């Protein structure tokens, strides 16, 4: 006698789970005798049920004794009970309703007896507890149990259990799913809008299905339904109607422990950028970091966040939005959490700056009242690692600070983060942050701060080889007339631009003016830097003498000038090349390269490789030149420096 609870029809919009289906099928068919269990997990709305149904349809022919299907609610308090499901299963297996016992253990014993020795598919959809799986496991036989999770369950005590975790659809599959609902022609006609819709639905099938149905109705009344949907999704209030995140996430989130619920609420804060650290969350909600770590593990197991490394997690956009929308606290309470996040980033940035650039003048001259940070890093490397990890969140925090008129924070962060960006060359973030910072400085009426930010932006464009834009920024900084130190730095930057533009005479004049002004200011480190930069534009003999002075000057300073000393050796190698002393040039460049490699400065390593390529050309060793130029080209390309990449490509192409 076969069981006969109906399996739902296949989802006609089902796409792109072929890898999971193939792997699950192989596991089932290759399994030894006995029952086997396939558990399908993943974020709410990612298509677990549709994937399970597709798998069951594909394997139905191998399990000829029938199928039993039960659907649970995500909230166990509102779901059918195991006892109720067992009653339905027993009826499907041929038991007369009057003969079915009342007690759960008795029903389970009869169910296991009736299913023993049989080959059934038992499909348990939306399981929320391991107990539900254990209660409905059939008796010993050759059955397949398909479990889709509404929240993580761990039936690890069952032999032959295999877990598959679904992720969001990839962009192409999500687009295909949308096209399957609204029509391929509609997607092709509004291609850009289709891409936006896929992104705003987080590539989740349940959201795409909801939005797709609305678009189909809109097609009956307007010619651009996807554009209308994009407009609705961009409006925060209308989006809550179009994409009600509570339908997907509410039931699961209500079942979280109180501490984890508080952590989940913090995921909706604005002052992080969708990547959040355990330390940042702990600061926001004032919980110990170990408690936050446990909460984030629970959220990661539920596929609401993705673990990036030991301490950082990526948060899905829809999860962040649901956390905000489900937060029933008043604006004042949420603002307190946001302010704690700002404090956390501010303290870290202050502490990092003190280690990365202790001799830089702007902190003391522009922010003389700043207290020492309460944060302590072990060393400069630890500070830089922290900044790398929090980089995305810091940018989001700066945007939030600007929105609430904390312009002082935005300006300060722009100034203090310079030594980090100078080394890391994360210029997209750098320029976006400085655009905010410049606006904030204008609103505060801080001319000196605006001039310093223009200097920093000028150097960013100089690195990008957008030399005219860089020259304009340095010139604007000069025009601010914000004091001798800013003027000297602007002269230095403009001199570097003119040197890169091969305007040697003008560059030398600017560097000499910078040197004179540095001596007038009287800061020894600034004087040494001015000597170093002036050497770049001088002829080989005077340049080598100046570089010797710069090397001695950096060595005599109290701070860590290892990288500047390596830059001196790099320029010494270039000037020795101009002088024709190829062996000495190679040795000086190799010494500089070793330091930059140890200090993880790929941008400077690429400069040195290009110079070594020039030395190889001078030797007539075109094979070595090609290798060095290619190394520089690859690094510039990887770092996103289009102008320098093109220059290296031209150097390679000109080799015989």
Automatic annotation (TrEMBL):
<dbReference type="InterPro" id="IPR003593">
    <property type="entry name" value="AAA+_ATPase"/>
</dbReference>
<dbReference type="InterPro" id="IPR027417">
    <property type="entry name" value="P-loop_NTPase"/>
</dbReference>
<dbReference type="InterPro" id="IPR011990">
    <property type="entry name" value="TPR-like_helical_dom_sf"/>
</dbReference>
<protein>
    <recommendedName>
        <fullName>AAA+ ATPase domain-containing protein</fullName>
    </recommendedName>
</protein>
<feature type="domain" description="AAA+ ATPase">
    <location>
        <begin position="34"/>
        <end position="169"/>
    </location>
</feature>
């Amino acid at each position: 006698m076969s069981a006969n609870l109906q399996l739902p029809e296949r989802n006609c919009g089902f796409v792109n789970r072929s890898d999971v289906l193939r792997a699950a099928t192989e596991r089932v068919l290759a399994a030894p005798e006995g029952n086997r269990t396939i558990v399908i997990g993943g974020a709410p709305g990612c298509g677990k049920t549709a994937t399970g149904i597709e798998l069951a349809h594909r394997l139905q022919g191998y399990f000829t004794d029938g199928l039993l299907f039960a659907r649970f609610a995500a909230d166990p308090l509102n779901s059918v009970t195991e006892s109720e499901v067992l009653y339905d299963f027993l009826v499907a297996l041929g038991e007369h309703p009057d003969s079915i016992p009342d007690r759960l253990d008795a029903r389970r014993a009869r169910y296991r007896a009736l299913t023993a020795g049989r080959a059934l598919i038992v499909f348990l959809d939306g399981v929320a507890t391991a107990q539900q799986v254990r209660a409905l496991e059939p008796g010993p036989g050759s059955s397949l149990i398909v479990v889709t999770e509404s929240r993580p369950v761990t039936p690890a005590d069952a032999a032959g259990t295999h877990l598959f975790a679904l992720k969001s659809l990839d962009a192409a599959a999500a687009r295909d799913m949308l096209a399957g609902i609204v029509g391929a022609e509609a997607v092709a006609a509004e291609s850009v809008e289709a891409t936006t819709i896929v992104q705003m639905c987080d590539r989740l099938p349940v959201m795409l299905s909801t939005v797709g149905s609305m678009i189909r109705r809109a097609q009956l009344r307007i010619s651009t339904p996807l554009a209308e949907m994009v407009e609705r999704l961009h409006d925060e209030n209308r989006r809550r109607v179009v994409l009600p995140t509570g339908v997907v996430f509410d039931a699961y989130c209500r079942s979280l422990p109180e501490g984890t619920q508080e952590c989940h609420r913090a995921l909706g804060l604005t002052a992080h950028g969708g990547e959040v650290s355990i330390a940042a969350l702990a600061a926001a909600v004032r919980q110990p970091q170990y408690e936050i770590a446990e909460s984030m593990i629970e959220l990661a197991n539920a596929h609401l966040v993705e673990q990036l490394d030991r301490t950082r997690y990526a948060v899905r956009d829809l999860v962040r939005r649901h956390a905000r929308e489900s937060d029933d606290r008043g604006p004042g309470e949420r603002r307190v959490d946001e302010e704690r996040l700002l404090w956390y980033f501010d303290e870290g940035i202050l502490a990092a700056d003190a280690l990365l650039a202790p001799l830089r003048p702007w902190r003391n001259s522009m922010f003389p009242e700043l207290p020492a940070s309460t944060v302590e890093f072990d060393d400069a490397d630890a500070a830089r690692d922290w900044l790398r990890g929090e980089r995305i969140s810091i940018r989001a925090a700066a945007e939030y600070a600007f929105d609430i008129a904390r312009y002082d924070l935005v300006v300060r962060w722009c100034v203090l983060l310079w030594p980090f960006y100078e080394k890391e060359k994360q210029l997209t973030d750098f320029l976006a942050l400085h655009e905010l910072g410049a606006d904030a400085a204008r609103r505060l009426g801080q001319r000196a701060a605006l001039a310093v930010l223009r200097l920093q932006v000028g150097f960013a464009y100089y690195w990008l080889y957008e030399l005219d834009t860089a020259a304009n920024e340095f010139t604007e900084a000069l025009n601010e007339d914000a004091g001798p130190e800013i003027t000297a730095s602007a002269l230095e930057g403009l001199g570097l631009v003119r040197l890169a533009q091969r305007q040697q005479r003008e560059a030398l004049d600017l560097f000499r003016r910078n040197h004179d002004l540095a001596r007038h200011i009287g800061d020894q480190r600034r004087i040494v830097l001015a000597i170093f930069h002036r050497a770049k534009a001088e002829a080989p003999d005077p340049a080598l003498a100046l570089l010797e002075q710069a090397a001695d000057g950096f060595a005599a300073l109290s701070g860590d000038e290892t990288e500047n000393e390596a830059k001196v050796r790099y320029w010494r190698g270039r000037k020795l090349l101009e002088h024709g002393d190829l062996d000495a040039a190679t040795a000086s460049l190799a010494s500089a390269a070793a330091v930059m490699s140890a200090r993880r400065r790929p941008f400077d390593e690429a400069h040195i490789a290009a110079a070594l390529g020039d030395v190889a050309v001078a030797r007539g060793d075109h094979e070595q030149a090609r290798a060095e130029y290619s190394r520089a080209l690859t690094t510039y390309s990887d770092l996103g420096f289009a102008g320098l990449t093109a220059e290296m490509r031209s150097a390679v192409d000109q080799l015989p």
